[in-house]
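Key idea: predict the complex, not the pieces.
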Amino acid sequence: MRLEECVEIRAPREVVWDAIADAENHPLFMAGLTRWDVKSGPEMSKGSRIDMRMAVGSAQVGSLIEVVEFDVPADMAWTSVTGIDQRGRWRLRERGDNCTKVTLRLAYQAPGGLAGWVTDRVAAGRVRRNLRRSLQALKEQVESGVERARGRSAR
Amino acid sequence: MARDEALPELLDDRDPDYIRDTLPLAWLLATLWHRAEVRGLDNIPDEGPVLLVGNHSGGNTSPDSIVFTLAFSSYFGVERRFHQLAHQLVMAFPGIGAFLKKYGTIEASHANAEVALHAGAAVLVYPGGDWEVHRPSWQSAQVDFAGRTGFLKLAIRTGVPIVPVVSIGGQETLVVLTRGEALSQALGLHRLRLKVLPVSLVVPWGITLGDFIPRWTLPAKLTTQVLPPIDVSEKFGDDPDLDEAYDYVTGTMQSTLDALAAERRLPILG
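Result:
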């Protein structure tokens, strides 16, 4: 199952990147996150590993994930090492002055043949809601940070 | 590696790949039918042996066991060794026993639990057993271990922490009218370690005696709360008063169950 959600954030791409490249910041905006243990330092890089879980229906699903692509300030991708099979990507693209289009993609596959196929589709609505809420929270966090910084510089 | 240095044969039947492949079915049942919710999984130590002590509900189908197994296996991964203790008659049931063994279920006995704990497993026990699981449905919000302290002796002997697992809703998946303990006694079923012969109202059969035939479980909302670990020796000393420790563990679980019951507005719907 492959899901994709987008949002436009009124902030420079580098500022948005800083927010998602800080591993300790993720629990502040990722919806449904119940576990986020960073196995390396707070600064993410290629090879960083994180033990993560997300509440989906009656289970907290997730896995140990590893960052496999880290192109500053444009793309960060991860894949699962253990647990449920998943791949994900943050994709940041400039949209004019001080505006960034943020795309969050998540592909996952439950095991178990037909039951797994049904599960993927039943879970999709719940996972998609989490992705949307996460992007909205990231937008609010980054834009309020930019506003505060503008206010300080104006004073 | 010699057999006695390797995993004990008793634990051989557990099959993580089988568990992984069947978890989606459990997820569909738990999410869509029971709207199940399991809280506090982060109270379970990340590694090492642990004795998970639960209150038991829902008759022999025990839907909260299915929900908890799904939650545990999803959260820690099927790679983490997890065993559940079940009554010998459940394990002897054709088809069911073989299925449960793949999930890591072993016959309930102190010796078996000790073997699993020594192998570093998380072990789920229901001290109340058939007595508690067949309590009348209007006692849904009561922890009833019938004074059994075996789980405490096991924790003390093995030095393993107890993690209480408190669930509500299971007893609303059928309507148990009475345990039928007098009938069980009269028929001599206690010789099979069966202390009860429940009379229940179930779908689609109506009134049934015993809990041996397949039935629909009613779509009751299930909620489970996992509590912080209790180190019995640390809390009550090296030679603890079992009655005091029993009262503490069951009292803690009862308080949690009372709080879960207070959250519920309607039977079944939750």
